[in-house]
Amino acid sequence: MNDIICTVDVVLMTLRDSRLHVALLKRDHAPFLGALALPGGYIRAAEDADTQAAAVRMLREKTGIDSPYLEQLATFSGSSRDPRGWSISVAYYALVPAEVIAAGGHPEVELLPVEALKGLPFDHQQIIEAATQRVRNKSSYSSLPVYLCGENFTLPQLQKVYEAILGEPINKVSFRRKLDELDILEAVAGAMETGKAHRPAQLYRLRKCFRQQLSLTGRALNAAG
Amino acid sequence: MNDIICTVDVVLMTLRDSRLHVALLKRDHAPFLGALALPGGYIRAAEDADTQAAAVRMLREKTGIDSPYLEQLATFSGSSRDPRGWSISVAYYALVPAEVIAAGGHPEVELLPVEALKGLPFDHQQIIEAATQRVRNKSSYSSLPVYLCGENFTLPQLQKVYEAILGEPINKVSFRRKLDELDILEAVAGAMETGKAHRPAQLYRLRKCFRQQLSLTGRALNAAG
DNA sequence: ACAATAGTGTCTCTTAGACAATATCGA
DNA sequence: TCGATATTGTCTAAGAGACACTATTGT
Q1: Which residue of chain A is at minimal alpha-carbon distance from B86?
Q2: Residue A145 falls within a domain, yes or no?
Q3: Would you state the pLDDT for residue B218?
Q4: In which domain, by residue range, is B44 found?
Q5: pTM of the predicted structure, to 2 decimals
Q6: CA Rg, chain B, in Å?
Q7: Is A113 left (phi over 0), alpha (psi -120 to 50) or beta?
Q8: Which of strand D's nucleotides are less than 7 A from any protein C-beta?
Q9: C1’ D5 / CA A201, Å
């Protein structure tokens, strides 16, 4: 029918040491055999219902992860991005807590900070930059960052996640007001103890009805806008 | 290499009678021969540098238009959207003033309101809905709607365009304050006359440096947020 | 002069951010 | 009790919307 190479790539992101990281894997095929690259591969028309399903399969096969949040990012294409020929890559991005990546049981997954990446094959650098920009932008007006937290988290923890992504401090009162308005979190019975030498923080979790959907704040969470 | 059908579809939108319209064409090939559908077609690996170039070509061939604003919308895929088999459609959307469509020299182009479409082939209805949502959303925080105006326009005209897209009235003072802050428009020498029985409005145009890029307002232009 | 809409000044109300007071833990 | 951080109350400042006043045209 045609000679276009159809693939899917997944930008699996997490927060480690207050910095966004992306999951990369050593390629086990030519081209770029052995190079660190995004988990991805050919769409299999016979088994994938659509590209989203292909992305889910790819993530599961290569990292052992089923991410609750997986969104289409954009499609990258052209004759020069893949040495094998004219290709299309439908890119997706996923956000998970760092523990989930460890629990995936694929120790070969490498986490690298999204800045200071270099020498990536194909246009993977560009794809990662687009994903980073999307996450930063979307975090400024939505509840996206909760997917980077574990199931339970405290408000100060969540605020630190937002600040890490947005790269600037957030007003504590405004932040809590916003989350209160959104009404997407619910307090968990027990407070966080961990033996910290200060007042313990209340644990929260995403309310059931919001487990897989995002909430928009309507206004930016940060000052810059 | 594979059996995936690779196509591009373009949602060409304009404003007519204060309502968003989409350009549709009667299909001249099977499947769905004769049905109204989005302008689109196969990606030609031999002549298209990438999918964006394919969309530009498609728009030019089928409507005679070179749109200054053409953005990737999303990619639609799967085994069931096209009766010929597993397919990928990279969808783009373009915004032009209604006059540009007439000037394209393709009288077979039909303009239909984005609401009340029915019986479209493939998943074109869904693609158009996604484009409509994107335009509405993006208009609430950017200068996107200027691409629906002609080269010169008055502020009251531009405000009516915003209001038509957003579907709600905008505060005049806030609207002008916002545009003033954005600093993307410049006054044109002559005022609008047209013999209206009232004070004439100043004509404006997009400043050169903003001809092809969008400006973000940082805050929503409408009340709802 | 009148009708009609453009353009502008200003007041108010909402909301974001600063500041600070209170609460609660471990040491 | 002290140090540290969580949580909450309140004041202030910035920005959006309401209102209304002035400006300019054709009839």
Answers
A1: A45
A2: yes
A3: 53
A4: 5-126
A5: 0.93
A6: 19
A7: beta
A8: 3-10, 15-20, 23-27
A9: 9
